[in-house]
Design goal:
- The structure holds 2 protein chains of 2 kinds.
- In chain A, about 65% of the residues lie in helices and about 0% in strands.
- In chain A, about 20% of the residues are buried.
- Chain A is flat, with a radius of gyration of 25 Å.
- By secondary structure, chain A is an all-alpha fold.
- Chain B is elongated and about 55 Å long.
- Chain B is an all-alpha fold.
- Chain B is about 65% helix and about 0% strand.
- Classes of the chains: A mainly alpha, B mainly alpha.
- At the A-B interface, helix 2, helix 3 and helix 4 of A face helix 3 and helix 4 of B.
Chain lengths: ~100, ~160
């Protein structure tokens, strides 16, 4: 019973994915390419960088990278505070 | 087999590989503005070399070499350097690239448009930001790995 239900769910999801795949645009032809074309044509002139992805990540969309760096910083701080050494008479969950 | 580390095969291969992995990670960071990769990716490669060391030799084996306090401060240095470089262009806009194509001796060269192999000494603050983010990522992930491994070992022995 469980296997039949899993098979039905699998077929259902696969059918939807295949249906979506048949109606995709051909590869490399985005709907609206104005922004991409701008980055590709002017990254070398404006940022003097040959790697357009880096130009986008560190220059055009630098603020987004700052957010990413903040996420990593928060993760490090969280792990460090979770695994810190307890003081002599301290228990987990003590209010201080 | 010693207490914390893995077998002699793993330790020997680690001794051969970890230097190469660190050098490759620094290469990916340094050439982030020319080739695929950048600060995040290269930092993760260097951190994976540190993780390999920790797994192969155990927390006790690398105790004196990877100092958590130093890694932690270096992570903050990287974050502040990134933020400082972002603020450097505040005269025009936040994250304005004030060095790119300016002709200054530090990453100030301009690049010809169209397909070419690129110039290393170009890109303005982009390579500097790559270094800042790379430093931040490599030390941050190394810090996480060290702290979690040491914590897990302590739990085991208790």
């Amino acid at each position: 019973m469980r296997k039949v239900a899993l098979l039905v769910a699998f077929l259902f999801v696969s059918a939807f994915l295949l249906l979506a795949a048949t109606s995709m645009r051909p590869f490399g032809t985005p709907n609206d390419a104005a922004m991409d074309d701008y980055f590709i044509s002017s990254a070398q002139g404006e940022v003097a960088v040959n790697n357009v992805v880096t130009a986008v990540v560190f220059d055009y969309r630098g603020f987004d990278t700052l957010g990413e760096a903040t996420v990593l910083f928060t993760a490090v701080i969280a792990v460090l505070s979770l695994f810190r050494k307890l003081k002599e008479d301290e228990q987990w969950g003590d209010e201080r | 087999m010693n207490q914390n580390g893995m077998s002699v095969i793993v330790r020997t291969v680690t001794r051969l590989i970890y230097g190469l992995a660190i050098v490759f990670g620094f290469y990916v960071i340094m050439h982030g503005h020319l080739t695929p990769g950048g600060g995040f990716q290269g930092g993760a490669i260097v951190a994976s070399a540190f993780a390999l060391l920790l797994v192969a030799f155990g927390a006790a084996g690398v105790k004196g070499r990877l100092n958590k306090k130093i890694l932690q401060s270096l992570e903050e240095v990287g974050a502040l350097a990134f933020l400082g470089l972002a603020f450097a262009g505040i005269g025009t806009a936040f994250f304005y690239n004030l060095l790119a194509g300016s002709g200054s001796f530090l990453f100030g060269a301009s690049v010809a448009t169209g397909p070419n192999s690129g110039i290393f000494n170009a890109g303005g603050v982009v390579p500097l930001m790559n270094w800042a983010v790379g430093l931040k990522v490599m030390t941050g992930i190394a810090c996480i790995v060290i702290v979690m491994l040491v914590g897990a070992r302590k739990e085991e022995t208790e």
